[in-house]
Amino acid sequence: MIIGVLALQGDTREHLHAVADLDAIGRPVRRPEELDSVDALIIPGGESTTMSKLAVEFGLLEPLQKRIAAGMPAYGSCAGMIMLATTILDGRADQVPFGGIDMTVRRNAFGRQVDSFEGNVDISGIDGGSFHAVFIRAPWVEEVSDSVEVLGRVNDGPSAGRIVAVRQQHLLATAFHPELTGDLRVHRYFVEMVREAGKTTEG
Ligand SMILES: NC(=O)CC[C@H](N)C(=O)O
């Protein structure tokens, strides 16, 4: 099982480390040929407008949209969550997502004065207590369709109740950055999703 990490821009390295810590094989993905060689993809945090622009420049936009639509498991954190959304609010006019999760996300939703904050999030399907979640100019999910499973909301504080973790079949997204806190539970959950998807394809 090879898990690619999109390496156009953002905190690719931290995700590669998380994957390696779980004894899975990680590989940076910059070109369409590299995308062909992976079973799943992590889309890191960073800047979604830049990521979108570079995806077009590197000829990755359409191949990515196609593979995601065809069932390749993908996990997006923060900017990666924005890239997996079907609809973006407060985006740049020419910003194109990869799509896949039937949801509307709002960029930089937690307010511009507070660039980043930390909060607690419980994620359904992941045991071991709340996540200590780090949000950096993070989006939140404003709306989801019936096909999207809401996995987590902010527990407390002024943004309590905001949706920050979702899953739609083979696609997973969090508004926060588990790759920065050394808590590997979200990555482990994703690796498990990839294994399950592999079994279905083989079986
Ligand atoms: N930490 C992040 O990934 C920030 C996301 C960024 N604000 C964006 O719109 O892409």
From TrEMBL:
One of its GO terms (biological process) is pyridoxal phosphate biosynthetic process. InterPro entries: Class_I_gatase-like, PdxT/SNO, PdxT/SNO_CS. Keywords: Glutamine amidotransferase, Hydrolase, Lyase, Pyridoxal phosphate. Pfam families: SNO (PF01174). Pathway: Cofactor biosynthesis; pyridoxal 5'-phosphate biosynthesis. The active site is at C78, H177, E179. L-glutamine binds at G46, E47, S48, R107, I136, R137. Transmembrane segments: none annotated. GO terms for cellular component: cytosol; glutaminase complex. The keyword Lyase applies. It catalyses: aldehydo-D-ribose 5-phosphate + D-glyceraldehyde 3-phosphate + L-glutamine = pyridoxal 5'-phosphate + L-glutamate + phosphate + 3 H2O + H(+); L-glutamine + H2O = L-glutamate + NH4(+). GO terms for molecular function: glutaminase activity; pyridoxal 5'-phosphate synthase (glutamine hydrolysing) activity. Its EC number is 4.3.3.6, 3.5.1.2. In the presence of PdxS, forms a dodecamer of heterodimers. Only shows activity in the heterodimer. Catalyzes the hydrolysis of glutamine to glutamate and ammonia as part of the biosynthesis of pyridoxal 5'-phosphate. The resulting ammonia molecule is channeled to the active site of PdxS. Belongs to the glutaminase PdxT/SNO family. This is Pyridoxal 5'-phosphate synthase subunit PdxT. It comes from Dactylosporangium matsuzakiense. The gene is pdxT.
